[in-house]
Amino acid sequence: MGNFAVVADLHIHTISCGHAYSTVQENAAAAAALGLEMIAITDHGPSMPGSAHPYYFKNLVVIPRVIGGVRILRGVEANITNVNGDLDLPLNLLTRLDIVLAGLHKRTFPQRLSEEENTSALLKAIESPYVDVIVHPGNPLFPVNIEAVIAHAAKYGTAIELNNSSLTVTRTGSKANCTSFASLAAAYDTYVTLGSDAHISFDVGRVEAALAMAMAAGIKEERLLNTSCQRIDDYLAMRRKKREELV
Ligand SMILES: [Zn+2]
Ligand SMILES: [Zn+2]
């Protein structure tokens, strides 16, 4: 059995977040060179030290829809800031974006909370129609009830990310948790995304470790969003509909 073809990288940073080193153009060129069809530009929300002002996210509209043949999604990796699952961008900005990633980060979420409190933060974020993907939930710095998170993601139709950099360069010790996330995602049939979490253009499209984990867990191709732009478009359209139902 071969690997599924990956046509998109849904988690990429630019120099605008203050601790990454490539521009939108450099990331798009790297994606084009790899033959990717789509990338999501997802810089950290404003509460991350050194990251962009909220106005940066409003002005993402200036980025062309296609650069060098690669479709560009205008997004954010929002910070979940408390156990209520609140994000660090207001709704009027979130609604302007194509894709909203959300996750727990060291500098923007209290550390050493209980597993119950960390889990609550993720469950609340999953319930929000403004959150499209929960990123790197396997971070051992924020232990969570993995099955509760996956069951909730399945119920609310929210995607869970397998983050390649968690398995290669950062968030050391994530692998066991990520393996559990992957196998439960397969069992509950949740949507899954792969993200390089590239902080420099050389890492754009590098999702091999996360893809291997998804394949080993038996996640179905139709649930792995990165395997088709149509799948991504359909998923994001479904998410938009949830937002409209709320208004
Ligand atoms: Zn992150
Ligand atoms: Zn990231």
Short account of what is shown:
With 247 residues, the chain is α/β, with parallel strands linked by helices.
Q: What is the topological layout?
A:
Blueprint: E1 8-12, H1 24-34, E2 38-44, H2 54-58, E3 66-67, E4 70-79, H3 91-94, E5 99-103, H4 115-127, E6 133-134, H5 146-156, E7 159-163, H6 164-168, H7 175-188, E8 192-195, H8 208-217, H9 229-246
The structure holds zinc ion (2 copies).
The site of one zinc ion has 5 residues, from loops.
- From the spread of the alpha carbons, the general shape counts as globular
Q: Which ligands occur here?
A: zinc ion
With helices defined by DSSP (H or I, 4 residues minimum), what is the helix count?
A: 9
Sheet bearing the most strands, described?
A: 8 strands, mixed
The assigned structural class equals alpha/beta
Helix percentage: 25-40%
N- to C-terminal distance: 45 Å
Provide the low-confidence segments as ranges. Answer: none
Describe, in plain words, how this protein is organized in 3D.
This protein is an alpha/beta fold. It is globular. Strands 1, 2, 3, 4, 5, 6, 7 and 8 form an 8-stranded mixed beta sheet that branches. 37% of the residues lie in helices and 16% in strands. The longest helix is centred in the C-terminal third of the chain and has 18 residues, at 229-246.
Supply database-style keywords:
247 residues; binds zinc ion; alpha/beta; 16% strand
